[in-house]
Amino acid sequence: MTRWQKFAGAFASLVLASGIVLSATAPSLAQRPTEEQMLNALKPAPKTRGLTTESRQLTEEQRFIDTVRKIKTRQLTLGEREKVFKIAEKRPTIDLEVYFAYDSAAISPEAEADLMKLGRVLTNPELQDSVYFVGGHTDAKGSDDYNQRLSERRATAVKQFLIEKFNLPDDSLVAAGYGEEKLKNKSDPFASENRRVQIANFDQKATAQR
After folding, report:
1. pLDDT digits (tens, 9 = 90+) for 78-126
2. Which residues of 21-34 are buried (b: 16+ CB within 10 A; e: fewer)?
3. What is the largest CA-CA distance in the chain?
4. Fewer C-beta within 10 Å: the chain N or C terminus?
5. Is 121 exposed, middle or buried (0-12, 13-18, 19+ CB in 10 A)?
6. Average pLDDT over residues 8-15
7. d(CA 199, CA 15)
8. CB-based burial label for 195 (10 Å; 0-12, 13-18, 19+)
């Protein structure tokens, strides 16, 4: 990997996926989503009754999420990551960028304020007992292996921050890295919006345990 590739890959950011994407260079406070906006974006859709094809599929998906959220000793497999991502695409999501130091997964002071705001939202009573997806992504700069490992480290760093600061249960956050596999802006693989961590609400644990 060239020095430039490492430097460019180091500015990976965190994005929860709703369309509120912040600039990678000194975003203003006006650009940042409010806690109310985050909360509204992550609220689950009203549940419907009946054993329709859609409801059965949702039940099967929740059972799968209930299984992977209990994995403690390894990263998710390629197949598990892919299935988790497909489920997350259909669930409530929101976008937010968080900054990391060069070639590091350490949460920066600039990032901490946004993550504190996110943590307050995730512990809001309206989202009680929810299970959340934390998916790390990079742009296409750098090698596949480097990007994969970096995305995993940063997704895990965000998960650990939320657990430690807000006492969230470990199994309420499912972290996975995707490297450059899931580009947000496919027409510009090096664009800043590709460097993100996606957050989605997988709904309540109680649903997954039925």
Report:
1. 999 999 999 998 899 876 776 666 567 788 787 788 899 999 999 999 9
2. bbeeeeeeeeebbe
3. 57
4. C
5. buried
6. 41
7. 7
8. buried
Q: Which domains are assigned to the chain? A: 3-208 (3.30.1330.60)
Tell me which amino acid residue 13 is.
Answer: S
pTM above 0.90, yes or no: no
Six-digit token string for 180? 């450059």
What are the distances in angstroms from CA 116 to CA 29, 62, 168?
15, 27, 13
Instruction: Determine the 3-state secondary structure of 57 from DSSP.
Output: helix
Backbone φ, ψ for residue 69 (5° rounding) = -70, -15
Contact predicate 131/203, CB 8 Å:
yes
